[in-house]
Amino acid sequence: FAPWNDPEEKPLIQFRNVSKRFGDFTAIDDLTQDIFEKEFFALLGPSGCGKTTMMRMLAGFDAPTEGQILIAGQDMARVPPNKRAVNMMFQSYALFPHLTVWDNIAFGLKREGKDSETINARVDEMLRLTRLAKFAKRKPHQISGGQRQRVALARSLAKAPKLLLLDEPLGALDKKLRQDTQFELMDIQEKTGTTFVIVTHDQEEAMTVASRVAVMDEGRIVQVATPDQIYEAPNSVYVADFIGDVNIISGRAKTQGDKVAVLWAEAQPDILGTTSKSFSDGQEIHFAIRPEKVGISPDEPADAQNKIQGKVLDIAYLGNISTYHVELPTGHIIKAQTANTRRIARRQITWEDPVWLSWTDTAGVLLER
Ligand code: ATP
């Protein structure tokens, strides 16, 4: 990956206090964010959070109501879409059905009036990049969905934009093909060095392809970080819950030495965690822990930092992993996940079994909200 967090790295895109209102509805709310050169940046969030509005403003189809958008240091306020070094690939990447793959890719270059030598060289380069050389003479209906998607990508990159916007680019592909195509997309992004901004509501996709992920909620970016930071250190219950599977236990904070405890239920052990944040006693606090960080065993673990008893309600066997739903005496359901890596003669855990759940003090995060 490009060293996006390198202070030397120049931001390609700067949102400065950008708001976008439609009538009295605020779609983007005072948003400030940099996106660096060569980054693969994902905007992730539920439907209606403002992802497409951000893209449309970048592309120049919409202007912000307030604030500034700079691309390569230049204020975009008066720069129309076709004058921006930006290209956009839409979810419905309509190719021209009557044109060959080659002509589809060449289309934008021809319209710009480039000479044929330049066009030939550029189209050939794009065909190589997207591994489409042998399909050059075919029409869109004579190639597969995945190949059509690559043609659309080749066409979008032909004019060598500084920035490519991808709006749910893989939405039309089935899951398996989607996953393969994600790797191709990463590969192509790296080879071309183009800044990619992708919009998706698919968290797995964002986590796979992006060097940084911005999680959005109601017109604001609530966290922006690398995929592993987002997953390991979400800054709110909203982000923890949006990315992957998580257990949330809510209660009141109580500082105990260098740890903070979550007081959450009668006659249950307090949940302890370490955190760099300070909480005042009695304050609302949430403990978020991923299922794979929760150990599960039939016997009481001798030296666990945190342990709690429950009863198995459900087991989902997913081949590589199994997920257990464990009910606590309080009625809380905790999910624990184990990797099925070995064919071990482990004592089987089945439905209704009493089990122990355990985790270390650093396995989860303590959150304010
Ligand atoms: P999705 O994943 O469903 O595409 P999104 O995150 O891309 O959602 P946007 O399309 O950016 O969401 O819309 C953000 C909010 O702004 C939505 O509540 C939408 O209804 C509203 N909105 C978007 N465009 C307009 C418009 N032209 N007029 C009024 N409201 C709009």
Automatic annotation (TrEMBL):
It catalyses: ATP + H2O + polyamine-[polyamine-binding protein]Side 1 = ADP + phosphate + polyamineSide 2 + [polyamine-binding protein]Side 1. Part of the ABC transporter complex PotABCD involved in spermidine/putrescine import. Responsible for energy coupling to the transport system. One of its GO terms (cellular component) is ATP-binding cassette (ABC) transporter complex. This is Spermidine/putrescine import ATP-binding protein PotA. GO terms for molecular function: ABC-type polyamine transporter activity; ATP binding; ATP hydrolysis activity. Belongs to the ABC transporter superfamily. Spermidine/putrescine importer (TC 3.A.1.11.1) family. It is an enzyme of class 7 (translocase). InterPro entries: AAA+_ATPase, ABC_SmlMolc_Importer, ABC_transporter-like_ATP-bd, ABC_transporter-like_CS, Mo/tungstate-bd_C_term_dom, NA-bd_OB-fold, P-loop_NTPase, PotA-like. Its EC number is 7.6.2.11. The complex is composed of two ATP-binding proteins (PotA), two transmembrane proteins (PotB and PotC) and a solute-binding protein (PotD). Residues 13-243 form the ABC transporter domain. The keyword Signal does not apply. Keywords: ATP-binding, Cell inner membrane, Cell membrane, Membrane, Nucleotide-binding, Translocase, Transport. NCBIfam families: potA (TIGR01187). One of its GO terms (biological process) is putrescine transport. It comes from the Bacteria.
